[in-house]
Design brief:
Blueprint lengths: L2 H53 L5 H12 L7 E12 L7 H4 E17 L5 E12 L9 E4 L4 E4 L3 E2 L4 E5 L2 E5 L4 E3 L9 E5 L2 E13 L6 E13 H5 L8 E9 L13 E11 L7 H10 L11
Antiparallel strand pairs: 1-2, 1-14, 2-3, 3-6, 3-7, 4-5, 7-8, 9-11, 10-11, 11-12, 12-13, 13-14
Length: 307
């Protein structure tokens, strides 16, 4: 009789062990099935977005003009604000053994483009804008009114940059700008074609140009290379109902020394990198930036555009 409980206990333990193993097996099978379903869903999504990207007429200048207009502004005609901030570097390759002689962070920059855009009947995008930026100390973040130039050991007054471009038209044959100074660019008089890079459900859209203009203050010519990049959702690009494509924006530029730095004939160049996002109201801009705008350029943020 004493053997029965032991036999019963052993049977029960054996049963529990097998049941646990069975549950683990069921769990593992369920996990594998879920992983398989996830992988299948990812594959379907990847194929879907690849097919969508293949259908976009990215070699059509008219499609590129329309896309650019929806990235840079809102084709509904509403006023929008492209806020940008970033860093400005000085470059002097080959000047001395120290790395600081090659390149250094000079200051930060923060600016805004107040813009209104509309789609013309012929497919061109017409915009009006006001653009300006301020400079900040790279360590303290304070807005600069003067700058100690490390290359010349001279302290110079810092201007507020206000672009002279007040309007423009983007056509299938490149941009037509209304500017108050002479300008030429590799973007002029050639088909408007952006550079597209698809990665899953997102797309990177690039535009580059080499531009030269004459400064009104000095009469001298300046040359610049610029690279614009917008990162956005592929579905938004393909949605014709959107008058604006939400995106993050970056602008990279290599250009000559700014004239207010008083570099004279010093060799070297400047490297700019600004990142930004488009917002729909002044309230969405950084408060200290808005306060600086009202202090230096009162009324510029809220002033209406002339019709």
């Amino acid at each position: 009789m004493a053997l029965l409980p032991l036999a019963h206990k052993g049977f029960f333990m054996h049963y529990r062990l097998n049941r646990r193993q069975a549950m683990l097996s069921v769990g593992a099978a369920a996990g594998m099935a879920a992983t398989t379903r996830t992988a299948q869903a990812a594959t379907r999504s990847s194929r879907k977005h690849a097919a969508l990207a293949a259908r976009l007429p990215i070699r059509d200048p008219a499609f590129n003009v329309h896309t650019l207009g929806r990235l840079e502004g809102d084709l509904s005609g509403k006023v929008v604000y492209l806020h940008r901030q970033g860093r400005v570097f000085g470059l002097r390759p080959g000047h001395g053994p120290e790395l600081d002689n090659y390149g250094r962070l000079l200051y930060k920059a923060e600016g805004v483009s107040v813009r209104t855009s509309r789609l013309r009947e012929d497919g061109a995008v017409v915009d009006k804008s006001r653009n300006w930026l301020f400079y900040r100390d790279p360590v303290t973040g304070e807005f600069l009114s003067e700058f100690a130039n490390p290359y010349t050991d001279e302290t110079v007054p810092v201007p507020t940059f206000r672009a002279g471009i007040t309007g423009g038209v983007s056509t299938t044959n490149g941009p037509e700008l209304a500017a108050d100074f002479p300008m030429e660019s590799t973007a002029f008089n050639r088909p408007m074609l952006l550079d597209w890079n698809f990665m899953g459900d997102h797309v990177w859209i690039y535009r580059h140009a080499f531009t030269r203009w004459r400064e009104g203050s000095t009469g001298s010519y300046r040359t610049e290379m610029t690279l614009d990049c917008w990162v956005c959702r592929l579905d938004d690009v393909a949605n014709p109902k959107l008058t604006h494509i939400p995106s993050t924006y970056s602008w990279t530029s290599q250009t000559e020394w700014q004239s207010w730095l008083r570099m004279k004939d010093e060799p070297g160049a400047m490297l700019w990198r600004l990142d930004g996002v488009l917002v729909r109201s002044i309230a969405e801009l950084p408060q200290d930036f808005v306060e600086q705008c009202e202090k230096v350029l009162p009324g510029h943020l809220s002033a209406p555009f002339e019709s």
